[in-house]
């Protein structure tokens, strides 16, 4: 601190001689072991200063400390309150998820999914949960003998479902529709005609390119070697990276493993590295408990049927249309049916989907009236029954998050445990209408800000054509690039998500892909041309694209 800040200009602690005395005195005290705990530190400093004849410095430091600790609106001495001029200070800003617009968006989405589940239940004549033996006895109808304590009312004339309508409670494209329909009450574009370049009307803080460069030096430094880029050119790098990974896995050093994953993980080490980073099977006892949990969930599939089981099986069939995942049919079905049933997720997921249902188990069900279950956002309530038990309402494309993991692990139990941990820590945010870090709204805003900063001309051109960049990248983001990139590229991208422990990596990847396609997109004259250019990403190498986007200076 400067002496002028304390009223003692002749006692500046930055003075070379005085600073040297203080350092020597501090070293002597450490060698004497006079300081035994944190509470002794202030007293030890006072003793050192007094013993060296620096009592005035001690007083200056004390006055400076009091000034820093004094509450706002009071003087250092505390005798006279400080006079504040002008209007009162604004209240403390609320968290982004507490904004009225976000709360209304979340509530509307929860009501929509609730109505959708009720419609499916009524149209099929099935309750939310039912013993599977009764289902077989009823010939698969699921109505007779069902557990009415968890049933939606079935009116005499249930509405019919269109072909394929009952397969999925929702499609992620509906999330985009609701985001596009947002109208900010403070927006003046209705009067001025001036609209922002972003699709998201919320003004949320998002990292700039410079901030991502500082947060992700492994990607912003072109001299940094990566699995997925340099290993194909330099065999020695792949061998060296393999040896380093084996040593870190054997040591179990999670912080170092996280740094290691930022430059990619070799295929044979990925199961152990991911498990360590996600806290799966940390000890032998944990592994045994997780195995027991999985066995119970598998047994539950054959004893209790959920209303959403048919949608999960339909989603698996859709995933099998991709020849890369065809061989994993049985594993995917078992893993996803367990995922929807597992209450572990509702207790540990960073985000709820905003659409899970809660039923008060103490309230009797009234047949023919409102369903027992009601929409809910908070999954922390006690004394309630959840539907689905995991708090995860299966959607069209849920299988996408399990398919790549089948290439990481061989056993269904291992696939399940990694998929569950990935969903609870990261992927749940991709389907949560949340404006905090890791939520969908924040990820979309980050993508928009990165692309606008680096490629403003491209953003303007696509917006003028009616092919907004956010609409182009939405499916990439909500499915974590599954289905757009090749499986190995998806796994390399997920390595970085785990390494940086952030979904900003996905926003960066989406911006990098569009920037790479810049020249072709600028030549497009219609939205259909843009869609054709962006249809296939199988030839893309995602790691070099992200490196180039962060390291390249200037505006495209």
How would you characterize this protein structure?
The structure is a single chain. By secondary structure, the protein is mostly helical. Helix 1 packs across helix 2 (41-51), helix 18 (440-454) runs parallel beside helix 22 (504-516) and helix 22 packs across helix 25 (542-551). The strands form two sheets. It has a three-stranded antiparallel sheet. The two termini are 44 Å apart. Helices cover 50% and strands 3% of the residues.
Quick take:
With 556 residues, the chain is mainly α.
What is the fold's blueprint, element by element?
Layout: H1 16-32, H2 41-51, H3 55-69, H4 100-124, E1 129-131, H5 132-137, H6 173-180, H7 189-192, H8 209-215, H9 217-220, H10 235-251, H11 254-261, H12 270-278, H13 284-301, E2 304-306, H14 309-319, H15 329-341, H16 343-348, E3 357-360, E4 374-375, E5 384-387, H17 412-425, H18 440-454, H19 456-465, H20 469-478, H21 487-500, H22 504-516, H23 518-522, H24 527-533, H25 542-551
Antiparallel strand pairs: 1-2, 3-4, 3-5
Helix pairs in contact: 1-2, 11-21, 13-15, 14-15, 15-17, 18-19, 18-20, 18-22, 20-22, 21-22, 22-25
